[in-house]
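Reopening: SnoaL-like domain-containing protein still failing for me.
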Amino acid sequence: MPSRARLDEFIAVVESGDHAGAIERYYTEDASMQENAAPPRVGRDGLVARERGVLERMSHVYSKAVSSVLEGDQVAIHWIFELTDKSGKVRRVDEVALQEWRGDRIFRERFFYDPTEAK
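Support: Ran it again with your exact input. Result attached.
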């Protein structure tokens, strides 16, 4: 079960823009991420590589946690992301992430957002 301090530390790393580093430091080796109803992606190394690929296509990423709830091993975070690609197109994603933690690391995460926002 994560402490509030550990969760706040994770949020601060994401808000700083170090998304790939957050995955490396705060996710279990066998972690999974799932976008809405898509099949989950499994394995921290692959999750980090995918995140780096997304970030390479961006000129700027703004990340803000609007709120977070911690209940035992269950965490919910309301995020606002603004992603500016290299052509200057800005996408705003209003997302809720539901996380299951194993100790002080994230084991499972599922994102809920309007998929038309992410295109």
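Helices lie at 4-15, 19-26, 44-56. If you still see a failure, please send the error message rather than a screenshot.
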